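Class, study these two lines:
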Amino acid sequence: MSDHQGPTDREETASERADRNWNDLLQEFRVLQTGVQVLGGFLLTLPFQSAFADLDPFQRGLYLVLVVLATVTTTALVAPISIHRRVFRWRRKDRLVAAGHVIARIVLALVSLLVAGIATFVFDVVVGRSGALAVEGGMTLLVLGSLVLLPRVIGGRPPASEK
């Protein structure tokens, strides 16, 4: 009896597939981590700028929401590593991959909110509230298109083995 689970074009065991999927997830997390660190670093420098005192209450509130969002996103990005440390050598890579997949989807949503929020914040400070609202609407459409619509169009329907 083979260790394979369902039809595949790869000759790999379930353990090898879990290892490959985990490595794919790690690569995705590395890319996301760099982006979140840059955005978070940008946010953390703002209070030390002289113009920060000129922010209105809405802008200060949005800024603080974005700082919290950046820290929550960073925390979510390291969660799979914490899980990996917990289950290391316990032969539970399938659970790790499943959890990592869910966390990756959550992180993508958080990063989307963070990117749209930062664009909104910057436009609000630079050109005003109406420009910020226009950018927020545009960014929301871009994010939904990039993270929801595009993967569905390109990916198509899941194979029967994944349903």
User: Anything to note?
Assistant: The two ends are 24 Å apart (CA to CA). Residues 1-6 have pLDDT under 50 and may be disordered. Residues 93-126 form the longest helix (34 residues). DSSP finds four helices and no strands in the chain.
